[in-house]
Structure formats: structure tokens, C-alpha cells
Amino acid sequence: MVDVPQWHPARTPRLRPVGDGDLELQYRVVHGYRRAFRMAGEGPALVLIHGIGDSSATWAELISDLARTHTVVAPDLLGHGASDKPRADYSVAAYANGVRDLLSTLGIESASLVGHSLGGGVAMQFAYQFPERTERLILVSAGGVGREVNPVLRLASLPGAHLMLSALRLPGARLQVGLAVGLMKLLDTDLGQDAPELLNLVDALPDETSRNAFIRTLRAVVDWRGQVVTMLDRCYLTEGMPTMLLWGDRDSVVPVRHGFGAHEAMPGSRLEIFEGAGHFPFHADPARFVSLVQEFTATTPAANWSREHWRGLLREGRPDLLGTRVTERDLREASERSAT
Description:
Elements: E1 26-30, E2 33-40, E3 45-49, H1 60-66, E4 71-75, H2 92-105, E5 111-116, H3 118-129, E6 134-140, H4 151-156, H5 161-168, H6 171-186, H7 190-203, H8 208-221, E7 222-223, E8 226-227, E9 243-248, H9 256-265, E10 270-274, H10 281-284, H11 286-299, H12 307-316, H13 328-336
Parallel strand pairs: 3-4, 3-5, 5-6, 6-9, 9-10
Antiparallel strand pairs: 1-2, 2-4, 7-8
Helix pairs in contact: 1-11, 2-3, 5-8, 6-7
């Protein structure tokens, strides 16, 4: 047994103040492409990876608090935000490589990863590809576990999506969609919880280059049937990796049942449910989110990776998950999909 120190908010060390200037975008050129990121604070590295169509701005209200105890790095993934948007590889494996390379340019050898939605899939893929550089995983409404995903994203993966996204930016269409969103919120539907946030993602695609990058990214992970990549078949490799799952119980994009399934597939993981929250629990209750991240990183020892342990897990293979919330259908679908 390992003695884990107890976390007390009053005893948390207060590092240097984080000013507004620390949250401004910075840039590194990696492989000829400009990568934008926000960086603040001192202490153990904490990497915040946003979801599809989003950017590091989604974490803006949280960075200052997290940076009091961590060196926080929040990148704009390639094809997103202020980063370049080339005609390139937008797979989760390529994104994991991109995060590694950016951290290398910043002199960061290992970090705890916080990934939201697509970013959760990227964080899991990073831990799979570079376990020696991963200290902890915090997965927020993460993709890459089950097939289900919001039908709007499935529709956006079809041919003609460029025209649909362009049309949504027309004043008349925007008004009609806004009225529909208002009605869904009035009726208190789960989609009504997330629709305003999802609509903001469309507004963040101002030109054809941005929309092309969004669609290329989406089609790398979603098709008309749902999510097309999975980590479910190798979740057992997180044994010994401190992992926390955070989910809104009204998530209309990636249903909360995926959180329960991932929790059972990841040995020793911890699951926290945000009641009444949708796909963006860190926006619904930022204070609780920050508190959970600080407590988790302070009270869990970083993963102690070794080649021998990794080899043993691979040789032993995936445990039998039947009889858990991970259904036979999930396992069958996982055999058809791969994050590699």
C-alpha cells in the first residue's frame, strides 16, 4: 500500500499570482505549422485538451485557479482556434503526437492530462502511445469509449456538411436555430443543455479553412453510425495510471453511460457525476471542477511506468468485462474500431 497525502485546500501552496497576461496566446512552430497555446503558473505540468471545434479559450476561466498549483498548458489543437489549419492528418493519434511535440518544445517531459470530449480521446491516446510521459488522466465527457454520439455530429460527418455549416451562419438560419434552441431549453431537454455551447462552436468557424479542418477532424472520429474509434479494447492498460472521469448526467453529446462503462473498464478509476450538467460540466460548475482536479492531482501519486509492467499487462490481455456496464455489444463494436 502507498500512503497518499491528504489534500487540504487551506494548505495548498500559493505560487506566484497569475496575471491576465499569462493567459494570452503564445505560439510555437512545430513541423512548419504554427501551434497556439496558453501557458501559466508553476509546479507540476497540467495539460488541458479541448474538444472538437473548440479551442483553449474554453478553459479560460479555469486556468488562473489551476495555475496556482500547476504549470498549465492549454493548446489550440491543429485545425482549431489560432493554430494553423493545413490539409493534414487530424486523427487522434496525430493529435497525441502533436501534444507530445509541443510539450517537448516547452521542456515538459511528463504531465497530467485533462481532456474534454475529443480531447479526452486524445488524452487516452497520448497515455497509450506515451505512457512514460503521462502522470495522470482526467477525462471529461470523453469520446472514444462507446459508439453513441449526438445525431447532429453524425449528420455533420456526411457529404454536404460544408454547405450545412455555411448555411448555419446566415442571419435568417441563425435566428431560426436560436429560436429552436430556446424552445429546447424551455422544455428542459438534454439537448437544450448543450445546444447553446454547440452553436457557439459553429460561430467559431468563420471561414472555409476553419470549416474544412473541423469536418476533417470530425470524419476522423465520427461517421453516420457514430464514433469510429475506441480505446475500450485497451482500457486495461490504465492499471496503475491514476484516472478520474468527470461527466454531466444530462450529456446529450456523449451519454453518461459511457462514463460508467469507462469507469468499469479502467482499473482503479474514479467517476464523478455532475448532476444537471450537460456536455460541458466544467462550464456548469467550474468551482467544483477546479476543486476536483486540484484534489485529485494532490492526493494521487504520479503513474510509475516501467517496461516490465507494460509488457506484463499486454501479455495478460484484456480482462473479461461481460456482466459489467460494458455490454457485449460494446465489446463487439470495439473489435470493429481502433484508435491506432
